[in-house]
Each structure stands twice: as C-alpha cells, then as structure tokens.
Amino acid sequence: MGPAFNNLSIGQLRVLLTLLEVRNLSHAATRLGTSQSALSRHLAQFREAFGDPLLVRQGRQYILSERGLELLEPVRAVLGQLEDLGTPSRFAPATCERRFALAGSDHVAQYILPELLRDLAQVAPRVSIDFRPWEANRFDWLASGKIDLATSMIEDTPAEFHGRVIGEDMAVCCMRQDHPLATAGTLGVEQFLAWPHLKISTGGDKDSFVDAWLRKHNLHRDLKLTVPYYSAALAVLRGSDMLLMLPEHIARKWAEQAGVCYRPLAFVQHAFRYWVVWHSRTHGSAEQQWFRKFIHDHCRGSQFLSPGA
C-alpha cells in the first residue's frame, strides 16, 4: 500500500478505517471507546502520513477526499485478512452445527435470506438461523445473547459493540406512482408537510433525522400510520396519498416492481449506513467470526443491499 503504512499498527489501522467509514469524529470516538480529542490527534497523524486531508469538512459534516476514498477498501481488506488470520484453523464451517440468531428487517428476510440460505447450505449445511425482526437501538438484545448479529441502518453504537459497514445510500420520500407530488423533481418542505405520512417502525431508524429538522424549525408532519413491516407499508402506500421515508435502494426496487415512485427532499439530506453489528462478548469466538464475515460478505454482494446503492 505504500510507505505511509509502514509505521501504522493494527490498532491505528482500525482507527483509520473507523474514521473513513463513520466520517464523524464524535460517533467514531463512541464506537472506538475513546475521546474526540484523541481521534483528532490520530486524524492529524494520518493526514501527515498520507500527505492528504482524508476527511474534508462540508458544512456540518465530513466527506472523504479522493485519497480517502482510495484508502477505504484497501484498509478494510487488510483488516479483514488480519481477522481471518485470527480465526483458529481448527474451525470448519462444514462441520459446524450451531444455530445463530440474526436480526434484520422483513425487507432483508424477503430479498436477502433466500439466496443467503442457498449459499449457506453449500458451505455450512449443518448451521441453522433464527431470523428475528430488528428494532432500532435494541443493542441490549446483542448484549443479552437474544441475538448474535444485527444487520441494519445504524447511526451509532455504544463502545462495547463492534460493527462493519455493509453499504450506504440516501434517504428519499416514496409515494404511489400517480400521487400529485410525483411530477415534482425534489420535494420542498411545504409539499412534504401538505400530505399525511406513514412510518415503518421495525428495522433501522429511517425518520428521526427529518423529524429532528422539523422540530428545529417548529414544524411537524401528520403521521397517520405506523406499521412494523415493509410489505404492509407498501400495500398502504399504493392505495393512499401517504408519504414514506425510505432508503433509496428499497424505493428503487419498489419503483421497479410495485407501481410507486420516489423523490429526494430539497430541504434536508441524510445518508443511511448499513452495518453488521455484534457485542464484545462474541468478538473472539471463531464461530461468530466466521458467521459475521459470511453475513457481511453476502450482504455486500447482494443486489438489494450493496455499497453505494
């Protein structure tokens, strides 16, 4: 990778990857269990080592420089290889008979699980999965052992948790194909507030960013219905005037298959990041290391949940 990597420890590589993935000093500090000032010092060292800012401030957020984008995948790959080396050689997926508990949304269950299970049958035919609906911020399920792994949109996690990024995309507003707003290019706040809204309660947090923006401006939307399932939300959306905030890759799939459309918001933007997350208590387990890598790699390769989708 070049001379800049020669003096970087494994710990520093993990810090660098977290900064490149999270792109937020306070959130990265929480994830790593350190202080924001310590991360600022690390970032300064990385910038000097690579001769590049890596993270560039844009408004109230950071974006990656071109060099930062170039480093993201190589650093992720190196750490993934090091994690593989830490897995005891005696562990063999083909003979593993464990039942893992995996949490996600019903969208993941519908579009990712079938192919995932077909692949699992080839490499680990004796492994079983209990799939459970994930609810936003229920990290206590991971801590208690109710689930082994969660895959979802997650903004931040407590320090005792670990995670790897699957991918990311943008928040959009979804509606039926013949909705009066369907002819708009982007939705202004007055257009957004003029119609009733629908919310999906399970899975990752898809709405709080827009509600926070509205509260800041002393505004609120008319939330008519909250449902736990994507399938139920789609049925309601197609037969009503309601609006629904969704990740773009899901809205795009619905637009291809189900007679709905989507538009970006003109007044606020938000990027979703998808993570595989686990608790520190399972971090060193050979079986868990293999399982989370299998889930992570499969989700990253999925046409329904891919990086940058």
> How confident overall, as mean pLDDT?
87
Biggest sheet layout: 9 strands, mixed
CATH fourth-tier homologous superfamily of the largest domain = Periplasmic binding protein-like II
Percent of sequence in beta strands:
15-25%
Uncertain residue ranges: none
Helical content, roughly? Answer: 40-55%
CATH topology term of the largest domain:
D-Maltodextrin-Binding Protein, domain 2
- Termini separation (Å)? 27 Å
Pfam family, one: HTH_1
Keywords: DNA-binding, Transcription, Transcription regulation
Domain HTH lysR-type: 8-65
Family: Belongs to the LysR transcriptional regulatory family.
Walk me through the structure.
By secondary structure, the protein is of the alpha/beta class. The chain has three domains: 3-86, Arc Repressor Mutant, subunit A (Orthogonal Bundle), CATH 1.10.10.10; 93-165 and 275-301, 3-Layer(aba) Sandwich (D-Maltodextrin-Binding Protein, domain 2), CATH 3.40.190.10; 168-271, Periplasmic binding protein-like II (D-Maltodextrin-Binding Protein, domain 2, 3-Layer(aba) Sandwich), CATH 3.40.190.10. It has twelve helices and eleven strands. It has helices at residues 10-22, 25-32, 36-50, 66-85, 106-111, 113-123, 140-144, 189-193, 208-216, 230-238, 248-257, 286-301, and strands at residues 55-58, 61-64, 99-104, 128-133, 149-153, 161-176, 197-200, 223-227, 243-247, 260-263, 271-279. The strands form two sheets. Strands 3, 4, 5, 6, 7, 8, 9, 10 and 11 form a nine-stranded mixed sheet that branches. A two-stranded antiparallel ribbon has the order 1-2. Helix 1 packs across helix 2 (25-32), helix 1 (10-22) crosses helix 4 (66-85) and helix 2 (25-32) crosses helix 3 (36-50). The longest helix has 20 residues, at 66-85. The model has no long low-confidence stretch (mean pLDDT 87).
